[in-house]
Amino acid sequence: MFSQRIDRAREAMADRGVDVLLLSVGADLPYFCGYEAMPLERLTMLVVPRDGDVHLVVPHLEAPRVVERPEVFDLVTWRDGEDPIARVVDLVGGAATAAVGDQMWAGFLVDLGTACPTLSFTRASEVTAPLRMVKDADEVEALRRAGAAVDRILADVQAGQVPLVGRTEADVAAQIGRRILDEGHHRINFVIVASGPNAASPHHEPGGRVIGDGEGVLFDIGGTMAGPGDVGYCSDITRCVHIGPPPEGFAELYGVLHASQTAGVVEATVGTPCEDVDAAARRVIDDAGHGEHFVHRTGHGIGVEAHEHPNIVAGNELPLAVGHAFSVDPGIYVPGVWGARLEDSVGATADGPVAMNQIDHGLAVVDG
Ligand code: ZN
Ligand code: ZN
């Protein structure tokens, strides 16, 4: 699997005139070699020349965490006190153009540029994103499993099985975080619990606000679960509940949101440009007069990262292809008053869009 991915990367490198691919911190690394670097200051680097052997350069003390795959890469370790940049420069050889991981520390890039003044740099995502975007059947299955896990959690919230009133957002978020792990993820990526006016902030950080009766509460949760090759794949879902019957304005707003999210998913057929999916969801909200309150793109790709390509956004003319996986998550945010978002992860298939999240899309009314 990893060898095939590297072969495909090399084809893309040849097409783009890239001589060497340099991957460090970030999701490209596990995608191509099964190893995830700790986001620390010591250098880790997968060096993929267009021809020749692939090397994984890791700090000596991290070597026990590496699952060796001699058919994919040779392991090179360096010890504290040695110069890892010199090791990488040796492996880069006479390359003229290097594609570097988008999340590589700027410090490593500066040091590489100093050590190889004639080397020019481009973003690795130009090579890697087109490959990572198209999920194979095993990857889609991994996304479905992760999606089903977060479905079970928010289904319990919708059913009123998680007490809310009188608890802080942070307390509820901690409980949901534990459940994300209990449901089979190995990492919690985010747990947004946003009550009342806090839901008007799309990426609200759950805090000390005590959830009250008669309020809306937004839940946006996701984690990472092991998939093919033990590489992690992400879940991401948003649902809203209202404690007690919602006031008319909120019910109206949520109805618009629900129609918008449905319109986005229905539009997401193979061959449709990503920006058309954004437009389909946005039109419903615009037409209802809430356009100014929909302050972000309609969606983002999902896979090894919770946010990856393709973005469902105005200006992205990329046509959806079989295997693309992405969120459809319109939101309406009225500052200081309330907000709501509705999000599924969705896969593009030859038979049409298939949502990875299947639980009820309506505004659940709970007792609290
Ligand atoms: Zn989300
Ligand atoms: Zn999302």
**Cα shape:** elongated
Which strand order spans the largest sheet, edge to edge or round the barrel?
4-3-2-1-5-6
What is the CATH architecture descriptor of the largest domain?
Answer: Alpha-Beta Complex
Which percent band covers the strand fraction? 15-25%
Structural class comes to alpha+beta
* Number of separate domains: 2
Largest sheet: 6 strands, mixed
CATH homologous superfamily caption of the largest domain: Creatinase/methionine aminopeptidase superfamily
Ligand catalogue: zinc ion
Task: Name some characteristics of this structure.
368 residues; alpha+beta; Creatine Amidinohydrolase, Chain A, domain 1; Creatine Amidinohydrolase; 2 domains; 6-stranded mixed beta sheet; 5-stranded mixed beta sheet; 24% strand; binds zinc ion
Provide a concise account of the structure shown:
This protein has 368 residues and is an alpha+beta fold.
Task: Give structural notes.
The chain folds into 2 domains: 2-131, Creatine Amidinohydrolase, Chain A, domain 1 (3-Layer(aba) Sandwich); 134-366, Alpha-Beta Complex (Creatine Amidinohydrolase). It contains 9 helices and 18 strands. The protein has helices at residues 2-16, 28-33, 84-92, 106-115, 125-133, 137-158, 169-182, 248-267, 274-287, and strands spanning 20-23, 45-49, 55-59, 74-78, 97-100, 120-123, 187-195, 216-226, 232-234, 237-243, 299-301, 308-312, 325-328, 331-334, 338-341, 344-349, 352-355, 364-366. The chain has a 6-stranded mixed sheet with strand order 4-3-2-1-5-6. Strands 7, 8, 9, 10 and 18 form a 5-stranded mixed sheet that branches. It is elongated and about 65 Å long. The mean pLDDT is 97. Residues 236, 300, 327, 329, 343 line the site of one zinc ion (ZN).
